[in-house]
User: Fold Ferric reductase transmembrane component 3-like protein 1 from Colletotrichum sojae.
Amino acid sequence: MKITTADWRNPTIGPYHEGLHGVNQPANIAFVQIFWASLGLLAATAVSFQIALWLLHSRRRAALADAPRESKQAVWMRPVYSWIPGLKRHLIYAPLFRLRRACRHPLFGSLPSRFHGMILCFYALSNIGYMLAIDFGNLNIYAVLAEFRGRTGTLAVANFVPLVLLIGRNNPITTMMRLNYDTCIMLHRWVGRMVVLEAILHGIAWAAVHVADEGWLSVASDIQNNQFVTAGFIGWVSLGLIVTLSLPPVRAACYEAFVDIHILLAITVFVTSLVHCELSGFDLPHIPWIIAAACLWGLERILRAMRLASYTFSRNGRASAVVEAIKGRTDVCRITLNLPRRVAIAPGTYAYVRLMAAKPWETHPFSIAWVEHKFSPAVTIAAEETSKSQRGKMTTTVSFIVGAQRGFTRDLFRRAIASGDSFTTGATFEGPYDGHSSLSSFGHVVLFAGATGITNQLRHARQLVVRYNARTAAARRIVLVWIVRNYDAMEWIRPWLAQILRLPNAPNLLRVKVFVTREAPHIPHDLVLGLKSFAVLFERPNVAELLRAEVADQVGAMCVTVCGPGGLSDDVRAAVRASQSSGHDIDFEENGFSW
Assistant:
């Protein structure tokens, strides 16, 4: 549209806070296409890498599963390329700064690793580059601000799509990339911060021109009386509230309320953004982008509901749960969920649980500690020992270990105590999620667990022993290191650990080391203590020394995994990085729940 002096009181300023005057829409669309293409290329590269890694692991597992039991697997002890350990040490496994990765930052929560930081840096710099790719040669600063307003608003909406994809639990793309939910949540937060930044800049650019033309009173009047501006302002404020409430101290103070408010504010942002674009008077391409992002979010919610209904209800009844307060000084509950059908649940998974007798409007994620499949209450078989012909007639029992922190978990523990140490209630089960990793191709596996982090590691140990006996795993040495404050924590997993140690070949294959950090040394009377594969040490572990000893006696390719408090995760990460100097093939996986 040609701008004339007859159209506005001040033609140098007036046009540039209305409509698309000064907005370079073709460039906006071009940059969005480049942005989405770059993200797609990044995802495709990650998927291709994971496929190549899967093929390598499959080949190694096939070659070693039937190999002689005494084989040292020396040919697999070192990676194909000598530079790979250095890459792992300085980039892939390195924290963003010196040491801290899993220990939470007071403002940003869990920090990205150096590798994820590099990806986020590329993402942030590309967004900043697109924002600043405007005509600074224009002598009219208000025209420049108008172009900047259009660019930032367009990019904010374009980022809705990756923002929604990263929060989806049922997203096949993140599954193929083997991104666990902890990583997805971390990436979601940083994408969300970029959306907020771009939205804030969008509003500031509009307000700066409007104030220069008509003053602050006109801005206030437009917010109250102009529906187009009102919708944008409500969305703008909602985004500000989202980023404020998502700060770790605020979020941790009342997590359950945060989740509900976060969802309501996110819906508000979607609705107001759509209204804002619809009332612009132009056929903006932003509208289908917003609708697409909202549809992806809605579809993922439907998939969650379908998964929940499928595993919670059947012709044989519905899921129920027994909640027990475990005896001792540890303030821990065991939730045993009885599902009405057989559910395949891999090690290292978690699920969302709803208990009808305890805040039934809330669901909470818990790591799955143990799984058993049953024909009837009298017949029980291990999860890995069933044939395909038997599976249709089974039900599944899923167990969780839940530490009483505050909020829901503390209320749950108190209710169990008040009910005589246990109670039964209706329940729902949504999951399992994650569990992308198989450790069966590694000759040497070291599992570190801290406190309730044992829930992530216990079933890995069982699966490896079972598959070793079935000659479908390369494992020849498994070490489980568990760090707890009190020996009473053994009550959490006593029957399950005893079951694992009674498996054929378990005493020769598996070593369990329990470190008790807050008790004086004594001789505990324990049913598995007499086994040479089980040791209790009343001291703090030297993680670096433990891992050095394992590397010195490494069998084939090694994988070190950790699940526990942030401090333990960071210590294990540092030890794995230091061990890369050996030149051996040592992989590292971290499992945590930072949300």
Remarks:
- The chain has 19 helices and 15 strands.
- The longest helix spans residues 25-65.
- The first strand starts at residue 313 and ends at 314.
